[in-house]
Each structure stands twice: as C-alpha cells, then as structure tokens.
Design brief:
The complex is a heterodimer of chains A (about 270) and B (about 300). With about 270 residues, chain A is of the alpha/beta class. Helices cover about 40% and strands about 25% of the residues of chain A. Chain A contains 10 helices and 9 strands. In chain A, a hairpin with a 2-residue loop joins strand 8 and strand 9. In chain A, helix 4 crosses helix 5, helix 4 packs across helix 6 and helix 6 runs parallel beside helix 7. With about 300 residues, chain B is mainly alpha-helical. Helix content of chain B is about 70%, strand content about 0%. The chains are: A alpha/beta (about 270), B mainly alpha (about 300). At the A-B interface, strand 1, helix 1, strand 2, strand 4 and helix 4 of A face helix 2, helix 6 and helix 14 of B.
Chain lengths: ~270, ~300
C-alpha cells in the first residue's frame, strides 16, 4: 500500500554565507560572548507547517507561483529533504523527475545515463539491460543514445528522463515542471505511457503550469502559496480558486482544438 | 482546506524519528544493498576520466610506476640503502599511501561534489561514499601492476631475510604471510568508509575543512615512513630500542599503522601485531564517531550541500 503522510512538516534552509560557514566565525563567536545563535545563520523557511495525506490512486497536480515551494514540496515528498520540524512518512518506491539538467552526467552517453538513472531508482543492472531497447524505442533517440548527453537538446533530455521513469514501474511518481519542453507529438505518445504508469503506480504528484497537462493526468490539486498548502482538493475546484476562473469551461468550448497544442497554457 | 477526511490522515506521527541510530544503520545497510549502483558509478568515474585518452586508465599505472621509480632511486641514494630492497618498499608504501590520500582528500569533498545527485534522487548518503572508496580501490588495483612488476624484478632480493637500513631490524623475507595483505587491505577500506563519512559530513557544513586537509596532507606524507623507513629512526637513536622518544615520530602517526598492515606482508617485512591492534582500535572508535555523526546530521546533508 503506497502512501505519503506528512505531519506539520517545515523545511528551513540555513543560508551560510562564506563567512558564517567557516570554523573561524564559530570559534570567534564563542570568545566574543553571546551572539544569538538563532540570528547568526539566516534561515529561509521554504515550507511551513505542511500536513498532507496522499494515498494509492491519488493523482495530484501542484500549482502555485514561482517560489511558492512546489519543487521543495516535491523533494519533501521524495524523501530528499527530511522535515526540519514535524514528520514525514513515505511508503513505496519513489521515482522523481526533477530539474532535467541536474542529476544526469552530461559527459557520458545517453545509454549510460539511462543505466545510472535506473540504478538510482532501485533497479538492478540486469533489469535495466532488458529495458534499454524499450526505452530507446520509446524515446526515438536512436543513435543519439551513443552520444554524450551534453549534445542533447532540452527536449531530448526530457524524453530520456521520461523514458527511464516510465519503464521502471515506480510506486510514487513525482514530476516537476520542465516536462512541457517536449513537442506535442512526443507528449501524445508519453501520455499513454504516463497514464498507464499512473494507473499501475499508486501515486502521482505533478507540478505544472499548464491546465491541459493537469487536466490530463490529475484529479486532485494542491495550491502552494508562500510555503503553505493554501488549498487541497479537486482539480477543477483548486484551479478555479487559483486562477480566479474556471479553466475547463473554456476547453469545453474548443473541443476540436488538440488538447496538447504546446502553447503552455499560460 | 483538506479534501481527505480526518480518517484518511494516519492517526499519529510515526514513532521512528529522523535522528536515530536505527536510521543511521539503515543508511549504511541500504547503501550496501545499492552496491550495483556504486559499483557501476565507480567504474564509470574511471572510464570517464580517461575517456578520450589513447591508453586510458593505463595512465594511472604509468604515473605510479614513474613516481615510485624516481622516489625509490632518489631516497635509496640519500639514505645509502640497497636499491633492490628499498625500491619495493617505497613502491608499495606509495601505492598504499595513494589510496589513503585519495580517500581523505576526496572524502572531504564527497557530498559537495555530488550535490546534483543528492538533491535530485533519494538515496542513502553512504552510497556516495561507497562509490568514492570503490573508485580508490580500482585505482589501487591499477597500481598493483606496478607492484607485480617490481616484485618480479626484485624477487631474489626479497625472498630471504634482509635489512633495509644497516643496523635496522632484520626482515624475514617473502613468505605465506603475504596473504595477510588481503585482510589488511579490507580493514583499510573499512576505515576509509568511516573517514570519508565523517570528513564528508563535517566538510559539507564547514567549507574550510577541505582546504585545511589539503594543505596538511602533504606534511603527513613526509612524516609517515614511506620514502624513509623506521630503521633510519633506529639508527639515529642508536640502540634500535622502541623506548626512545624519537621513535614516537612514527608510532604516534596513525597513518603509519594503516600503511604498515598492508605493506609489511607484501614485501616480506616482519609482521608486527601492534599495528593491527591499533588499526582495530581506530576501526571501532572511528565507526562509532561516524555513526554518531550520521545519526545527527545525515538528514542535514541535503540541506547543506
């Protein structure tokens, strides 16, 4: 049974500037008498008092302005950040697809990156070897898979990352923005796979600005604002509150236009 | 607004706290379960470093060979020792030292260098340490070729009792004790893991540590009996007795003991069990310290990098 539970969790980042990250200052600070240890290192409160309960079958969209804490929340849900206050409990195998530039080695080939991603996501080498052909076919990268990743465009990286993640049967899938960088034709192809995956895997959390993507994959939504969960509920309901109008009314009028026209929705 | 009812929300926060020895042990254990991952990454690191060079990782072997040859010849002249016995001594000492050096200097950098992976993929932090130590093991494996060559050339000088420095202790020569190098090295690698964990976490928080370590590590090299041997100290003190304070130059240096448990068997030196006892002590104390650090700061590493 897959689930993510978070109780009153906060994520605070200490910001060490060059000076306070040194031993010198720590030592001198002791000699010089009392300095508020609270005040010495500035803290950014990225997430504040989050309480969430996600379970099997939840497909949750994540909306909010830039800097509202969407990416940090995804990392909290992935278990990368353990809450500084409060608790979290993650049951299930997590597959995150975050910032596509980082976490992949630009100097090694696409194949190698597929392998390493897979191993990080808890697959064995043998299991990955059987999947490599499938991934190669899905991503349509062909001979490019032999090339170093630095020669790839952003869209090609998205393809690669999606290819790996959709092939490994994760239980919890966390997608950050950036997925929109692929072209519509590929997205249409990825959609089936993602849907299939979402159907199999327990849980999806998907941060995106595009109403179409959200409508496609999610039925619930979280609205993040200034590190709080401002609203958690049905997708349409939350989006209406977030945008101030109902985004899906518009779509029902333009039924003929392809849903994924690649205009990014905003 | 909560869409889920209160029933859905699990009743109470779990009893397992983030800061517990259970989680610290779990981190190490899960890292071990991920051995395919760090095994692969370690190889990848080596292959990548020599990706576009013609002879590839053979450069590791060549650079070690030339360094050992030059240092061995130079210091055997300086100390007026016998080249056929002194050159293998320097070679093996230098190979082992290189492993220790790599583990310490790269250990301080292990989490900082892996910032991207730590922030993007959930994995036990010990994985990054294991990858680094495994990479150092592979470097050492490349350097063993040099050892094999040196051993082949100077075998006749080492297979009977010999002394390195005139008046120093007599060594029994190569024998079955050679196999002791294997447990010796395993013990060394086990220590490398805690050293990298400890230094890695502390350096991630205090960024002064890596430069400090890098500037003092050269001093440690010269203080450790690698290009000189303890026989020289014994000659200086006259009697060869262990009680002279000048012998402490070597004895108080932990690196000496770590080097010795691997080096002595490989070149047929007398096996001195007190080195093993000291290394054993370090293993226990060091791992305890690393586990305490892991317990308290494991979850902070992703915040600090």
């Amino acid at each position: 049974m897959v689930s993510i539970d978070v109780w009153n969790a906060s994520v605070d980042f200490p910001i060490f500037d060059a000076k306070s990250r040194s031993l010198k200052k720590l030592a001198l600070g002791k000699v010089g008498g009392k300095i508020e240890s609270e005040g010495r290192v500035p803290i950014i409160e990225a997430l504040h008092d989050i309480t969430l309960s996600l379970k099997d079958g939840d497909r949750v969209g994540l909306v909010g302005h830039n800097g509202a804490g969407k990416s940090t929340l995804l990392r909290l849900l992935a278990g990368i950040y353990e809450p500084t206050r409060g608790h979290s409990r993650i049951i299930g195998k997590v597959a995150p697809v975050f910032d596509l530039g980082v976490g992949m080695d630009p100097e090694i080939s696409g194949y190698e990156n597929i392998m390493i991603r897979g191993l990080f996501l808890g697959m064995s080498r043998k299991q990955m070897e059987t999947r490599v052909d499938d991934i190669a076919q899905f991503t349509e990268l062909g001979d490019y898979l032999q090339m170093p990743l630095r020669t790839y465009s952003t869209g090609m990286r998205v393809r690669l990352a999606l290819g790996v993640v959709t092939s490994i049967n994760p239980e919890i899938l966390l997608l950050d923005e950036g997925i929109g960088a692929v072209d519509a034709a590929f997205m249409a192809k990825a959609r089936d796979r993602l849907k299939d995956l979402v159907a199999r895997s327990g849980l999806l959390v998907f941060a995106n600005h595009s109403d179409e993507f959200l409508a496609e994959f999610c039925d619930k939504a979280i609205w993040m604002d200034e590190g709080h969960v401002k609203m958690f509920g049905g997708l349409r309901e939350v989006l209406t509150a977030y945008k101030g109008f109902d985004p899906f009314e518009r779509h029902q009028q333009h039924e003929e236009t392809p849903v994924l026209s690649g205009n990014g929705g905003e | 607004m909560q869409a889920t009812s209160t029933l859905d929300q699990a009743e109470a926060p779990p009893a397992v706290k983030s800061r517990s020895f259970k989680r610290a042990f779990a981190d190490v254990r899960e890292a071990w379960d991920h051995r395919e991952l760090w095994g692969h990454l370690g190889w990848q690191d080596i292959k990548q470093r020599y990706r576009r060079s013609v002879i590839g990782p053979l450069w590791i072997t060549i650079s070690m060979g030339t360094t050992a040859l030059a240092l061995g010849l130079l210091y055997s002249v300086l100390f007026t020792t016998n080249v056929p016995t002194f050159l293998p001594y320097v070679t093996v000492g230098f190979i082992v030292w290189n492993f220790i050096l790599g583990c310490i200097t790269e250990g301080t950098d292990v989490f900082i260098a892996n910032e991207g992976l730590i922030k993007h993929l959930p994995a036990p932090i010990t994985v990054h340490v294991m990858r680094m130590v495994w990479r150092q093991v592979l470097f050492l494996a490349h350097n063993l070729v040099v050892y094999a060559l040196v051993l082949a050339i100077f075998f006749t000088a080492l297979n009977h009792p010999y002394t390195i420095t005139k008046g120093g202790i007599e060594h029994p020569g190569l024998s079955w004790t050679m196999v002791l190098a294997i447990p010796g090295f395993v013990l060394l690698a086990v220590n490398a893991v805690w050293i990298a964990l400890l230094f890695g976490v502390i350096s991630t928080r205090f960024r002064d540590i890596p430069p400090v370590v890098n500037s003092f590590i050269n001093l440690v090299f010269f203080m450790t009996p690698i290009v000189w041997d303890t026989g020289v100290l014994q000659k200086v003190t006259g009697s060869g007795s262990d009680n002279d304070w000048r012998m402490l130059i070597a004895e108080l240096n932990p690196v000496y003991h770590f080097v010795e448990i691997v080096r002595a068997p490989l070149i047929g030196h007398a096996i001195d069990w007190h080195h093993w006892a000291i290394v054993g002590g370090f293993t226990v104390v060091g791992w305890l310290a690393a586990l305490v650090i892991l317990r308290n700061y494991r979850a902070r590493v992703s915040y600090w990098v």
